Amino acid sequence: MPSAHPSPSASTTATPPPAPSSPPSPVSPAPSSAAPSLPVLDLSQADDPALRDSFRKELHAAARDSGFLHLTGHGVTAAETARILELTRAFFALPEADRLAVSNLNSPHFRGYTRIGHELTGGASDWRDQLDVGAERPAPAVGPDDPAYLWLEGPNQWPAALPELRDAVLQWQSRLAAVAHRLLQELLASIGAPADFFDAAFADRPHLHTKLIRYPGAAPTGADQGVGAHKDYGFLTLLLQDVVGGLQVVRDGAFLDVPPLPGAFVVNLGELLEIATEGYLTATDHRVVSPAGGVERFSVPFFYNPRLDAVIETVPGDYLDSAPGLAHDASNPLHAEYGRNELKGWVRAHPAVARRWHPELTGA
Q1: What are 100-135's pLDDT values in tens digits?
Q2: Which carries the bigger pLDDT value, residue 218 or residue 177?
């Protein structure tokens, strides 16, 4: 892996790539008052012996049928969610110079701020900007024979102009990790598997990841790709949305609006659960349509993932009799070793960071 620092000419103020020149037909986000389009599950029912079985049946069905659900009863308070959204808005309200001071181009670990248009999905620019935060750890010493995915661990970048952000985001990350851990155990139990099957993979140095995201409205070209259709490449995602719609999920071959539901997280399954269940549970394509005009949308997705070197084994259970096996997509190979699956996503989505720090991964 490269050890040299990048040259000063690798500027963090490069002009963003243009938005897609042939925009898809605009899709208007659903209003926030619309009825929920996904199952709504109350995690607190898992604590009630009288309700646990029915909760697990509903969880099994939601995970099997769509891989998406609304989660309530998680114990995260309205004050906590309001605070993280308040700080998210405060970060994006900082002067551009303060945000660029923590540009992800400074980080071999893909941490920090990404300017609008600088992340790619499906080869096209996503019309959003974001701050990527992981577990706060020192950078490991990565030797030439070590797996390249070890570069994904390291320190975060924090804006000096908003010092309270660091503790708030790290506390939020820890809070949601506990919720996701409980949900994963209930999901495994719901398909007849040992609830603690993945505990060892998460017990030491789990690879937690949080994004603070702003969608600033439609691109100047009229393209509406806030973020293009994709699948998450880990285990579980818990998404906090504001009141502005735009999230869409594939159901029956078409994109379905997912209006925000106050007090609920949107939960979706990632590719590693598809691997672990031989396709019985599947990661589902989803996207965000840009809000109209100058409306801003803010969201905070949290990704619950195991340690980077965890090799994902098949979850035992009778459900395997109905597992169809993995669908093979040459453009999106799935890897059982978590770090490899994660690294492919970062290199694909952030080619400028990869070229600057890890050119051997890009062919540059």
Answers
A1: 999 999 999 999 999 998 998 988 899 999 999 999
A2: 177
b/e per residue 325-359 (b: at least 16 CB within 10 A): eeeeeeebebbebbbbbbbbbbbbbbbbbbbbbbe
The residues, any chain, with a CB within 8 Å of residue 262's CB and separated by 6 or more, are 243
Q: Exposed, middle or buried: residue 278 (CB in 10 Å: 0-12, 13-18, 19+)?
A: middle
DSSP states of 56-104: HHHHHHHHHHTSEEEEE-S---HHHHHHHHHHHHHHHTS-HHHHHTTBG
For 341, list phi and psi in degrees, rounded to 5.
-65, -40
Lowest mean pLDDT: which of 33-37, 129-133, 177-181?
33-37
The token pair at 203 is 């017990």
